[in-house]
Amino acid sequence: MKNKRSKRSYSLIPLLTLIIFCSIAFFMVLVNAANFFLMKAGVIDSASFSQLTPPQLVILMLLFSFLLGIVVSAIANRYPLKPIATLIDHMNRLASGDFKTRLKFKKAYLLHPDFNELTNSFNQMAQELENTEILRSDFINNFSHEFKTPIVSISGFAKLLKRDNLTEAQRLEYATIIEEESLRLASMATNVLNLSKCENQTILTDVSEFNLSEQIRSCILSLESKWAKKNLEFDLDFDEVTVSANKDMLKQVWLNLIDNAIKFSANEGTIEIHISENGSFYDISVLNYGSEIPPEKQPYIFDKFYQADESHSTDGNGIGLAVVKHITLLHKGSISVRSENNTTAFTVSLPKS
Fold first, then answer.
1. In-domain check, residue 287
2. How far is CA 284 from CA 55, 75, 268, 287, 351, in A?
3. CATH number for 333
4. Nearest to 87 by CA among 104, 63, 106, 69
5. pTM, full prediction
6. Considering the domain boundaries, does residue 32 fall inside one?
7. How far apart are CA 254 and CA 346, in angstroms?
């Protein structure tokens, strides 16, 4: 979207040109006035100028122009061209990796709207680059940690299996741990691939019309082995709803949200799933009873590899909600979270058509 510029806003180039032109004109007038008064005072004899030959006049004018050019350039560099030098200096600092640099002109320059716009645009760019650098650093640190943990675990228990003095129960226990960690690593790799696919996809493809209610029920059944261990019940409050969307992508959304609800539900609890109409959107809510997400952590739960549970006591790698968010955005929808009174509800809003 193009910014609406004020009618009083002029281009910086004509402005700087006008300033330099006025400076040169001012000095020309000043020199001619000084010359006039010196002649009137008799300090300079006008007759002596008439005796100069053309080459001498040319040399004199060149010398005068050279001296005037030095003075004008010094003043122009000190005042009209100083913002350009400042901008170049900050751009060099930004290019060298100093993303904390911010552009700031004096109040006299900020009276012009273009300088305000330049300052705001540069500082916004620097802020975005700083945020990107922080996100990149956090992503690398979390990525390496999350992948390293199961690999180290697999390696350690594989070494233990080589011992001859292990009982059959110990061998079975270690083999089970290796299997679980391998599945965790495979799940993490799959989620990273899904996230990468979503991030690099800008156009929604493979759109078809299907029964959303039936898809959610199918996802619940596919996760039976998890919720059955905790004796959880489901409270489904929705009619048969049909949507036009990418069926495989939306399936990932419900699997991730329901899986999270199962992980953070108390034993013998209830998970509620509601579908309601909200204008031209369907609101699908997945609610579980259990520990809350602190308000200060809620803005970050959709970031890659972020986990509100810093103790990592529950299974997860911090990728699922990032996938959910990207898929929802691809469908021109939105996702929100509400966590209070020992309940946590994720609500996905999807357009009806």
1. yes
2. 90, 66, 23, 10, 11
3. 3.30.565.10
4. 104
5. 0.53
6. no
7. 11
